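user: At home tonight, take the chain set out below, taking as long as you need, and be ready to discuss the fold:
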Amino acid sequence: MVKHEGQLGLDRVRQLWHLLEPLHAVLYYAPAVFEEAAALGYDTEERWPSYFPYRAAPLGAIGAERVASAFYSFSPRMVAEHIDPAWKIASAEALLQARVRGIDRAYRAILGDRTDSPEMAEAAALARRVAEAADIAGRPLAAAHAALEWPRAPHLQLWHAATILREHRGDGHIAALMVAGLDPVESLVSFAAIGAASVERFESRGWTPAQWTSARERLTARGLIDADGTATEAGRELRRTVEEHTDQLAAGPWQSLTQDEIDRLVELLGEFWVAVLSSGLLPSETTLGIGRV
């Protein structure tokens, strides 16, 4: 019997995100994926020249303003720096094909024989059911990824499902930030203020010192952070509300599985999660604040 909405605890929803996020994020860090981008002509000395077109490709060759709107927390200037030349280097379709090739190679390098294991096939089937149950109304990045053709190989299906679900959650997170009255740069300043990650890590989003200071002043005026940049109790409570709202908005697709199936998926994903984290490819600190909120 499938669980009714509301029965799945929000802690479980967040745990599932924590398990799936690294499986998706390999796209932006694995050498094999960078090699595929380099073959298309992208600069791979740093990750941003390929990050923006790789992530935006399901939306098509759209302009920087629309990409910045969908990505939300990145400086529009930074988005334009990388998106404006991106579609002149390769088409969106070429990028979609390159990222699948890269993920195939990356998963095989990280997971070895487990890539083609029965456990992988089982996990992929469960994750796909959840991804296909996601309500994509009002969620542009989730909708764009959900519209793509499903890969045939189970490990690629698992990656695709993880990607749809992380973008589904991300779209919901933006809605939660907007309800909380946090604009793109304020969302980062307020998150840094609770210690989710260092200010230096959040600076990777491309905002200028003047923009960061202005956002801090606005949040200080609202009583959300102190003069030294740390969150007040009101600021911490607002961020707790944002994260709880995000979990609530991410919970829907998981109602497609029974509790036993969710438990089984958690069990299956654990081994893959450990392998990805043990690869050393992912940074120890991210702007997502996983494990700190």
About this structure: The chain has a mean pLDDT of 93.
